[in-house]
Amino acid sequence: MIRNAPKPAAVFGVDLGKNLFHVVGLDERGFVIQRAKFRRDTVLAFFQRASPTLVGMEACPGSQWFARKLQAFGHQVRIVPAQFVKPFVKSQKNDTIDAEAIAEAVTRPTMRFAQVRTVEQIDIQALHRMRDQLVSSRTRLINQARAFCLEYGVAMRQGVGVFRLDLPRVLADDSNDLTPMMRQMLAEILEDIAHVDRRIVSVTRQVEALADREDRARRLMTIPGIGPLAATALLAAIGDGRQFRRARELAAWLGLTPREYSTGGKTTLLGISKRGNRYVRKLLVHGARSCITHMNRSKDRIGEWLDALESRMHLNKVAVAMAAKMARMAWAIIVRPGAMYDRRDPAVA
Question: Which of 99, 112, 139, 171 has the CB geometry, 3.0–4.6 Å to 15, for a possible disulfide?
Fold first, then answer.
């Protein structure tokens, strides 16, 4: 008797792991036709032999690398945020059930997906994360040293710059109550801070060099409040920006738009949602605060808009509104070749 060959799966759901990968295949009607488990060294061979199809996975460490490998095999890859997969887990939980839920989630026409990033985006993102971690480490060292000094009745001013001036002065002052052991420990902390400072300068120079070489980054830096850090962080986070249909979607993705809790026909808007990339949102908000403080509003068309906002709302709200506007302008510049920010002096226009 001749048996019909099994039909190839229309969609695969993959539950990623460090060493084991659980794969579930669905047919065109959504029924499970295949369940399998692979080790890391065999899962790529399976998908290399499989017919090009749709493959879904959760956004997690390693998903970007795996997605790029599958795209090289000709598969269409969709990465789903984990919170959007959870509603499709019907009962219980194990890796195979998760893979089945992923396969079902990626077929939904209204599902939202994470962008598959290039190697260049991953490299830039790694630089930013390393710099952010170094700045946090420096802050922890400074706070620890200041706390140690307080135990001996020595109070130092807040801030990185004044700390570098105060601590050597405290160590050289023999009249305070610091013990020899504490003086040695504080001197070692000062050396650690100096080493971290050098690492921060090195990473910052790498980011600035990348911004100088990238055309889109140079055009982004024409926007008030956006420098090399914010420009490269935006490019690392959103790439070409084509996953957003309009500028407001980028601002919403960054968590700079109001959070809504509406029911019964009554619209209720709360504070900003703070969703998405917290690091990029922080850079934009800091850049917005810098604009509010230092911008020459008589020479920039945004100046009148800022003046009008400040007349009716708190300064923090003005900063967030400015950050949202910066995000919208950044999207327009990224998706339009050759576009730049036009300050357009109101007195001349």
Answer: 99
